[in-house]
Amino acid sequence: MADSDKNQKGFTQLPEMHSKSLRGPQSFNEHADFITSQPAESKGKNADKMPAENSDKAPLEYDPQYILQVRDLKKYFPIKDGMLSRTVGYVKAVDGVTFNLKRGTTMGLVGESGCGKTTTGRAILRLSGDKTGGDVLFNGKEVYDLTKKELHDARTNMQIIFQDPFSSLSPRMPVGEIIGEAVREHKLVPKAEFDDYIDNIMDKCGLQPFHKDRYPHEFSGGQRQRICIARALALNPEFVVCDEPVSALDVSIQAQIINLLKDLQEQFNLTYLFISHDLSVVEHISDTVGVMYLGNLVEYGETDDIFRNPLHPYTKALFSAIPIPDPTVKMKRIVLEGSIPSPANPPEGCKFHTRCAQCMEKCKHEVPVQREIEPGHYVVCHLYDDAAKASAE
Ligand SMILES: Nc1ncnc2c1ncn2[C@@H]1O[C@H](COP(=O)(O)OP(=O)(O)OP(=O)(O)O)[C@@H](O)[C@H]1O
Ligand code: SF4
Ligand SMILES: [Mg+2]
């Protein structure tokens, strides 16, 4: 294939591709990487009712340096009960998440099991029905305002890679079909170029052309994840949610897949939201990191700042468990008391107060606000109220 036939991402030239991407208005504002807006309900108690959609807020302005702008995103799942299946409450899986993601970078999302990482990723991609509240601007367009047709087209541009590469691959389809199915459906390449296009993508993902006719069960876990990555990349996306993409793999294979993701990011200027339990992997791959607890981001910043200088008591506890590869250094592990509360009935005030060793009286009643403690480093904790006040004076 001649180089002139390739677009800037190295794939076959797809004339319609960029008309399919969600290009927004060209306004620019001076927002920091992380917008410090506070959830509307955060005025004392964690309200127990469905919130009104940001009606009192100014529309989120598009900033072209960000592929993704998320403001106060909420996703509640109704809890049904009784014969009439009445809604008796809500699982507040995502309860006011705000961040911006720069093009071509990776944001790591960490936190204990059940804190809402997957739901955040799925809600951004509009894969879980309606959102409960907030804004999700992708290339300046509100994802939840797209028509069915626009959303269908936008799917090529926003992809997801799942944790379990086996269950996400159809066992009855040969690999070439799995990778090419959506390419065909979206008519991304002319018929005559289809085979070359798929071969090219498979090659970029470390797969051989003869793998096309084989079935998923004939591959190892690492190869299956390569197939999933190839399937996502075949659609020429700009943004990929990677939901625990290596946790089901052997440690030796994890590094290969992480390196593959990094190489592909460099080649195609991809942007990743990288969800993982593994803090070492997140540190290795991410430019920025968000720490989630019970549906909220409690800390966010550049990877170096978060790992070298964690501020939130929850982040400190989480990071204290990272092994230090130096036998002379004694680890000071902070063990969290109690278990993670139910997102259907989160504690009032600071949601972390039931487990926090530094809990103060006001933590039990007042919801802390997000504060920028050093440039680009945000934390949601009352311990920093005075520091923020002092720097404002
Ligand atoms: N479809 C759903 N219906 C009801 N509750 C849900 C649904 N999906 C997720 N939840 C709940 O929302 C909360 C957040 O779940 P989520 O899967 O986002 O967590 P997670 O951080 O990805 O966890 P893990 O690290 O285990 O993957 C959990 O309490 C979960 O039980
Ligand atoms: S606000 Fe209070 S309870 Fe919450 S993390 Fe900070 S110190 Fe702990
Ligand atoms: Mg998950």
Explained architecture:
This protein is an alpha/beta fold and 393 residues long. The chain has helices at residues 17-20, 117-124, 148-154, 175-185, 194-204, 221-233, 251-268, 279-285, 303-308, 313-319, 385-392, and strands spanning 66-81, 86-102, 106-110, 133-138, 141-142, 158-161, 239-243, 271-275, 288-293, 296-302, 370-374, 377-380. The strands form two sheets. It has an eight-stranded mixed beta sheet, with helices on both faces. Strands 2-1-4-5 form a four-stranded antiparallel beta sheet. A hairpin with a 2-residue loop joins strand 11 and strand 12. It is globular.
Key descriptive features of the protein:
393 residues, disordered N terminus, four-stranded antiparallel sheet, alpha/beta, binds iron/sulfur cluster, binds magnesium ion, binds adenosine-5'-triphosphate, 11 helices, eight-stranded mixed sheet, globular, 21% strand
Biggest sheet: strand arrangement: 6-7-8-3-9-10-12-11
Global mean pLDDT: 84
State the total count of DSSP E strands: 12
Order of H and E elements: HEEEHEEHEHHHEHEHEEHHEEH
Shape: globular
Name the ligand types.
adenosine-5'-triphosphate, iron/sulfur cluster, magnesium ion
Strand content: 15-25%
Brief summary:
The protein has eleven helices and twelve strands. With 393 residues, it is an alpha/beta fold.
